Amino acid sequence: MISSLKNQTVLITGAGRGLGAAIARAFAREGARVAINYHQSPAAAQTLARELGDNTAAFQADVTDPEAVSAMVSEITTTLGAPTILVHNALANFSFNGDARTALEDMTWHDIAAQTEVAVGGALNAIKALRPHFKAQGGGRVVTIGTNLVQNPVVPYHDYTAAKGALMAFTRTASKDLGPLGVTVNMVSGGLLRTTDASAATPDSVFDMIAGLTPLGHVTTPEELADVVLFFASPLARCVTGQTLVVDGGLVCD
What we know:
Elements: E1 9-13, H1 18-29, E2 33-38, H2 42-52, E3 56-60, H3 66-79, E4 85-88, H4 109-137, E5 140-147, H5 158-178, E6 183-190, H6 204-213, H7 222-233, E7 244-247
Parallel strand pairs: 1-2, 1-4, 2-3, 4-5, 5-6, 6-7
């Protein structure tokens, strides 16, 4: 157990299902107070909150709405205590299905903007809402969720990858502004995860191909990625900021 995470409050955006739920379980296992943010999956979020116990609660907010995010943070502070850790995991609706992806010739700016509004706009809104709490508490942690497709766009998901690339840049610039407050800002970039709602449409043959190319011989699980998020949220990473760590079993070397 990472004892330093016990009784700290963590806000995880997009935590009702998939990778976000795995991250929520990881923090709850370490004794943290977990705020599960959700947008359109109330049943899953409430079920997860009940599973994780009294120190966990679900909170609805669209992360692209700054007023909704601010109100949510106020509610979390009243219910669980002021958050000291933010994990920005929220993802606009997306399916990793290479055959059904939008090709470049059919792509519009709206497609890219919709992904970026959640990835970067959501991070901006959450950080701004938490900044007063970080300042009052003398520090904090921000962890964003990226993708190894930025380094290796083996499947050209243009909208998703462009948004995550912008989030990577924002992670780095935010670390400069928040550093004087004692806040670290880092990104954990996963590969294709086995399995989340977003990767459920991925054929087994693709998972098998990736496993064969990966030094560890298997596709990363949500639980394995969640443990790296814990590292960045803990004092073990206190002198690491503005960095991106690729967690894909060694498939991509950056």
